[in-house]
Amino acid sequence: MPEFRRDIILDEWVIIATERAKRPEMFIEEKVKIEKPSGMICPFDKGNESMTPPEILRMDKNGAIINYTNPDWQIRVVPNKFPALKPFAAPGSVLHGIYNVMDGFGLHEVIINSSEHILNLSQLSEYQLSLIADVYIRRLKEIKKDSRIESVIIMLNQGRDAGASIEHSHSQIFALPFNSPVLEKELRGTLKYYRKYKRCAVCDILSFELKENLRIIFENQYFVIMQPFASRNPFETWIIPKSHHPNFENIKEDIIPAFAQCLKIIVDFFYNDLGNPSFNYYIHTGPLHTKTDHHYHWHFELVPKLSIKAGFEIATGIDICVATPEDTAKFMKEKITKIH
Question: In terms of DSSP bridges, do strands 12-16 and 320-321 run parallel, antiparallel, or are they unpaired?
């Protein structure tokens, strides 16, 4: 029988359509080999550095920050050539009749994940993924110095269906002068939960999930990979730190490899075992200048593009997930256990 399941953080309901649910293996897509067309020039490839705006950061394969003229780079951070936000705009809103309007103030940066022309994160090693996470942390700490910026979204679009306009693997950073609506809903929900129970909602989720062990896929000393109980999408996958902390940028350097291990496991699974579907991932991290220590818990979410939102979802705001998180977690765990 179909179930309504409540997301205890956002206080929203989803439908797990058990009677129309697909088996996990039915989501496996035919892997399509994509090659760079002959003569195509990619602005993110090594040797084409002049095709991007002046860079913000350059890191070599050993994780050292290097001079902008050093050709032996692994990761570069550059301003987006066509930014959605601009740092020289003025923060603050004004009234336009009954409406509020403000300049598009903020930051929009691109992290080029590799000097090689790679299309998929699974082509990178666990160590290379740890360097990307290190760059995320460095940029968060630097952006935090600007008191005008309140929240940061770190995200990656992989594949055309996920919105990637350039196939060369890259992440994006958006820095906003206010909390995004999603973050604001998470903050309200976790604060409400904390006030009621005097505990962190995500810590309670983690404790319950580890005990029930139906949606847990993998865990190491510091992190857990799981499918959320109220999944909105088939194979929606989270990485949650075992230790409570609101901000991603404050994780200790020595646990970055443990996060990279989890990220590598996930991207390898989607590439090798699910046919390389397009996906989006996000790091949900707390506000930069507002204390949320007691109730907010940063986490990572990856959502593959395996279903399309139709009329019911759009009209009601209630998502229908056509796969149970218990089945998809079991499927993922079986595939991953064979390797790890």
Answer: parallel
Against a cut of 0.70, is the pTM above it?
A: yes
What digits encode the pLDDT tens for the residues 144-195? Answer: 999 999 999 999 999 989 989 899 999 999 999 999 999 999 999 999 999 9
Q: Is 200 exposed, middle or buried (0-12, 13-18, 19+ CB in 10 A)?
A: buried
| Token pair in block for residue 77 | 């951070």
**What class does CATH assign to 3-88+101-337?**
alpha beta
- The CB density around residue 51, as the number of other CB atoms within 10 Å, is 13
State the number of CA atoms in the 13 A half-sphere of 109 facing the CB.
Answer: 26
Catalytic residue, from 108, 168, 170, 284: name it.
Answer: 170
Burial of 123 (0-12, 13-18, 19+ CB in 10 A): middle
256-272 and 126-143 are packed helices; what angle lies between their axes, rounded to 10 degrees?
120
| Active site (annotated) includes residue 299 | no
Quote the CA–CA distance of 328 and 193 in Å, as a whole number. Answer: 28
